[in-house]
Amino acid sequence: MPTFFVASEAVVPPTVRITGPLLRHLRESLRLQPGEQLSVTDDRGTRYHTEIVEITSALLIGRILDSTSAPATTGPSIILAQALLKGEKMDWVIQKATELGTERIVPVLASHSVVRPRADRIEHQRARWQRIALEAAQQSERWSVPAIDEPATVPHLLSCSKPARAKILLAERSNGSSLTNVPLSGDGDIWLLIGPEGGWEDKELKQALGDGFVPVTLGPRILRAETATIAALSVLQSRLGELG
After folding, report:
1. How far apart are CA 59 and CA 194, in angstroms?
2. CATH of the domain at 65
3. What is the pLDDT of residues 22-33, one digit of tens each?
4. pTM of the full structure
């Protein structure tokens, strides 16, 4: 069952009260009715299993049947720094990265990125990506929604990537070690930096390597940028005990 995210103010024991866009979605798209059950998660990390007792055009009231707290976090967070991709590929990466447990996604304005968002459209685009992440987090029953940053240049990204448990750079045709062998011990987050369809510019590679990013490979095959992202996240989460 998907879980839907609500503000903690919506929880007024023994009920949960839902209004606004989420109410419209539950009422008009999902056509939920009194007597049906609904799972919601608040911004304090508590999940409520409820039974709908009333639903109108202005308000949904769910009676709380039971609640569960988010499990303790035992491993590092993964931050995905993804060079902007063209078409719907970026949307797809954000959706799948959310399903795979990424805690934060930083779109990167790489030199070879085909996509160049207009300055007056950046906030609109970021809000759209955040909605995609929200929907994916609900579908995959996550306890939180990953934050989507505004697009950043490589130098700006590097200035924000400290401290870190590991800094990983995926580069095609590199002589780096296998992602399965990169040390993941220590403190801090894991940063995963993945380039655009056209690959990294030499200057960007030198900047990233100088900042401590370690080049890695996923094997002998050249993967599409969006495929490489999902493959790398899957390997990392498997190593962290979060997948498989």
Report:
1. 43
2. 2.40.240.20
3. 999 999 999 999
4. 0.92
